[in-house]
């Protein structure tokens, strides 16, 4: 996993890059319980951020 912080002049958007050695490894990750759990945790953060009046919703 690689993480890249926001560049100068950009919004507070971080980029995370996952690399896989094979399509089978990618598919295993896409269907994993770990990934599902992380997506669920992230969803709560995004919903909270979107509801805050002090800034735009992520992606917007």
Overall tally of structural domains: 1
Helix content: 40-55%
The average pLDDT is 82
Radius of gyration: 15 Å
Shape: flat
Oligomer: single chain
Low-confidence stretches: none
Keywords: Monooxygenase, Oxidoreductase
InterPro entries: Dimeric_a/b-barrel (IPR011008)
GO molecular function: monooxygenase activity
Protein name: Antibiotic biosynthesis monooxygenase (ABM) superfamily enzyme
What does this structure look like?
The protein is flat. Helices cover 45% and strands 10% of the residues. With 60 residues, it is mainly α. It has a two-stranded antiparallel ribbon. The mean pLDDT is 82. The chain has helices at residues 23-30, 33-51, and strands spanning 2-4, 15-17. The protein has one domain (2-51).
């Amino acid at each position: 996993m690689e993480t890249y912080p926001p560049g100068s002049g950009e919004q507070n958007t971080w980029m995370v890059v996952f690399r896989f050695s094979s399509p089978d490894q990618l598919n295993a990750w896409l269907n994993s319980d770990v990934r599902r759990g992380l997506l669920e945790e992230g969803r709560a953060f995004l919903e909270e951020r979107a509801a805050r009046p002090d800034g735009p919703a992520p992606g917007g």
